[in-house]
Amino acid sequence: MDILERIIENLTSDEVRRFKILSNRFKADEEKKLLVLFDAIRSGNFKEVEETIVRQLYGSTDAKTKNTYYRLRNKLLSNLEKSLLFYHYNYKNSIESLSNLQLSMLYQERGLYREAYYSLKKAEKVALDLDQFQILEVIYDDMVRLAIHHDVDIDQVIERRRVNQEKIDFLRANSEVLGMLTQGLMRRNFSRSRTSSSVIETLEQVQSQLEVHKHLFHSASGRIMVLRTVVSILIQKSAWADLANYTERMYQEFEEEKLFQIENHPTRLMLRIWRINALHKMLRLEEAEPVIEALGKEIKLYKRQNYNEFAFHYFSASVFSLKHSGRLQDADTLLKQALDNSEIIYQEIYEAYLLISLADQYFCQEIYTEAIRVISKLETHPGYLMLDEELKFFIHVFKIVNFFFARQHSQAEQAAKSLRQKYKKMLKDEFYAKSERFLDIILRLNTASMEGKRVMLRSAYESFVRDFPPSEIGGNEIIMYEICLQSLLEEENNYYSLLTREAGKQTK
After folding, report:
1. In degrees, to the nearest 5, what angle opens at C-alpha 346 toward C-alphas 315 and 477?
2. pLDDT of residue 102
3. What DSSP state is assigned to residue 472?
4. In a domain, 501, yes or no
5. Whether the model pTM is above 0.85
6. Considering the domain boundaries, does residue 219 fall inside one?
7. 480 and 452 in one domain?
8. Chain centroid to CA 343: how far?
9. Domain that holds residue 51
């Protein structure tokens, strides 16, 4: 999707209203065309009607007309960007320092050097209050250059710049490491992986450095960096009870000290999400429900400015709770609603995760051919490339299982051959021995079905549960291997009934 369409589709109702107010002030023919184009894109399915809109605006669709049309698109994009900046300046403090910086540049161009310095001082004050160290570097650079034309205490400016540069260097080193590790954790969907032990040591080093230098921060930003690092460590250690308690305590502290603001609203939402994930890992479903409800309300705060980014987490958490508390049909309805909403699948990786959930949903409903169709769609989806290699491996195993249950025996064999070629290294690793054994049992059953033979499944199952620890509900493996095998042994109980029974046991 083009950037213009993405921006328009994700505008809030207030942003749309402000843009139209500004656009309606102008009566020129081109401004009217801008609004026609804007409304056409906003209505959805724009690609299907684009040619019709071009003809409506210009009477033809020849090459010359197309050039004029693309200039109109560029102007619409430019006007939207200006409207967004103007609108958000009124209530976003983080933009104020940049606005004062731009005013200073304007004054300097006109030779109003005293006024320019006044604007730089205002920008510096806001940037200091908000720990905007990168913006401060630009401000100090402008102050140094302004000293040629205006009386500036250059020695003090240079000293403040030196101190600020030290903070930038320190933060850059830690934020780069933390950014890479956090992204890796997200790709693994909050589950432990083969690389957990090496990640923990690095995270603990980052945390200790941040604690030592916490005096550098004036706003909540430093505490947020410490918070994110501690959370990452707890996730990697699978310390779910500690994570639930820590995030609840930090939420209360931020609330009591009035540290939550519009600029760090995503941190408020992430605290909710981390707590929900921790409670889900422990299957404390009833305890998670009010937190999910609170998240649903909070993603709509500040005129839904963070809705696109966080709606996925609310719907995903809701589906998990519904599914594991026995409300499979409600989970199915909500999941399909999420997949039909462009605001929820804002990022491609979010849609990929929802497709995994949908395939699992069909498996639980014993609609295996639909599960296979969804997995095939997932494997060609752009978000699939962003998933961790380990998760892709488990998806491939899950596909083979669905082929087997759908009695598509030759496809199961072919998919298994492909998995062994693609993930040869993983299959040699002891960490994935459980998946390999499970896959071996499924493929033996698959071969036996093709040849009309029987397999001593009970002895294979008993050996499996004896040799390996129980699977984690909601883990990267997607399904619980031992419950899948148990469902084959107990014809009166299908996979989903056994899953909810297990979830009920672990909840008590």
Report:
1. 55
2. 85
3. P
4. yes
5. no
6. no
7. yes
8. 12
9. 3-89
Domain co-membership, 396 together with 464: yes
Give the SS3 label for residue 190: coil
Confidence (pLDDT) at 174: 60
Convert 436-470 into a string of H (helix), E (strand) and C (coil): HHHHHHHHHHHHHHHHCCCCCHHHHHHHHHHHCCC
What is the per-residue pLDDT for 159?
A: 92
Are both 25 and 120 inside the same structural domain? no
Please report how the helices 13-23 and 29-42 are oriented relative to each other, as an axis angle in degrees rounded to 10. 160
Contact 282, 239 (CB under 8 A): no
Distance between CA atoms of residues 361 and 329, nearest Å: 9
How many residues are given for the chain? 508
Domain match, 143 and 26 both: no
Domain tally for the chain?
3
Q: In angstroms, rounded to a whole number, what is the distance separating the alpha carbons of residues 370 and 363?
A: 8
Of the candidates 410, 349, 348, 399, the residue with the CA atom closest to the CA atom of residue 374? 399
Kindly give, in sequence order, each residue whose CB lies less than 8 Å from that of residue 382, ignoring residues fewer than 6 positions away. Answer: 348
**Token code pair at residue 321:** 């709770």
Cα torsion through 482, 484, 488, 491, rounded to 10:
110
3-state secondary structure 87-117: HHHCCCHHHHHHHHHHHHHHHHHCCCHHHHH
Examine residue 229 and state whether it is found in any structural domain, yes or no: no
Write down the pLDDT at residue 319.
96
Which one, of 488, 506, 150, lies nearest residue 324 by Cα?
Answer: 506
Mean pLDDT by 10 residues, the chain (508 residues): 78 82 67 83 80 84 83 87 74 72 86 89 87 88 89 90 84 62 51 49 58 58 73 79 88 88 89 95 94 96 89 95 94 94 86 95 97 96 91 96 96 95 90 94 93 85 93 88 94 91 81
Of 89, 107, 138, the domain-final residue: 89
CB 191 within 8 A of CB 475: yes
227's tokens: 């918070």
Chain center to CA of 135: 26
Whole-number Å distance between alpha carbons of 330 and 318? 10
Using N-to-C axis directions, what is the helix angle for 481-489 and 433-451, rounded to 10°?
A: 30
For residue 282, is it within any domain? no
Same domain, 41 and 126: no
Q: What is the rounded distance in angstroms from the CA atom of residue 196 to the CA atom of residue 257?
A: 34
DSSP 156-175: HHHHHHHHHHHHHHHHHHHH
Could you tell me if 20 and 120 lie in one domain?
no
pLDDT of residue 190: 46
CA dist., res. 121 & res. 97, Å (int): 10
Cα atoms in the Cβ-side hemisphere of radius 13 Å centred on 216 = 22
Given 54, 89, 124, the domain boundary residue is: 89
Whether residues 46 and 71 share a domain: the answer is yes
508, 385: one domain: yes
Residue reference for tokens 């500004």: 22
